[in-house]
Design goal:
about 300 residues, alpha/beta, globular, proline metabolism
Length: about 300
Amino acid sequence: MLGPVILAASRSDKMRRLVSAAPGTKQVVARFIAGEIVDDVVPIVQELAACGLEVTLDVVGEDITTVEQSHAARDAYLELIGRLQELGLGERAEMSVKLSMFGQSLENGHELALANVRPVVEAAAAIGTTVTLDAEDHTTLDSMFAIHEELRKDFPQTGCVIQAYLFRTEDDARRLAANGSRVRIVKGAYKEPASVAIQDKPEIDKAYVRIMKILMDGEGYPMIGSHDPRLISIGQELARRAGRKLDEYEFQMLYGIRSEEQNRLAAEGHRMRVYTAYGTDWYGYFMRRLAEKPANLLFFVRSILTKG
């Protein structure tokens, strides 16, 4: 299977250099990455909002190695929030953050990440929006959930992400659904061992459906992160059975993928949020997008050959 190979490559500095230098890379990266700076992404947010879509913004670059870089990540989000405030886009755009980017993997990383993310959450709340904590590999999750719980004491709208392929996730979903959290469910995009994660794709899909049902039947706000038409249809049916109104859950898809479906769901009255990443350190995010779907990899290879 190509997926695990690509995920392994996402951590390779040698592959980072090779992919970055490939002649077709820039064209393909532009499909998934909205730009490199705030000025690139703001027009895209405005365009999506004008189409009735909502946005979650991710400043990419989780592979940091110094405290100074963690502070720079914090400041990049604060700059983004300032621009959204200036343009009155706070109610249409939230933020997604990876705590590794805020220093979680460094010495005293839990405390550092909490100290860095709190002012971002505070600033987001001040303009009428919120922050969702992205899930990363399984070794980081206990820290992420603890930070999520701490932030919700003052900012209850702070969201988090759970990954269907992990064995622990159904228990996490029950806990989060019971306490009224905003929860995004995704399949999972990290290379995880068989001891902690389901390896068979059909079984991952079954777990995804079970977890959706837990969230829809719970007290929280489910955010269905999927491009899979079957899972989206099942999500709609589970919401109907749970008696949820259209504004009591939402769908989320990645920028650059299935745009017509995004517009269709929004036109039907569903809350549809577009996960929009930008920044210069795009490599890890880009490689996970290639790993998720073979068609993405084929598109990349074809572009390289065309440009070559």
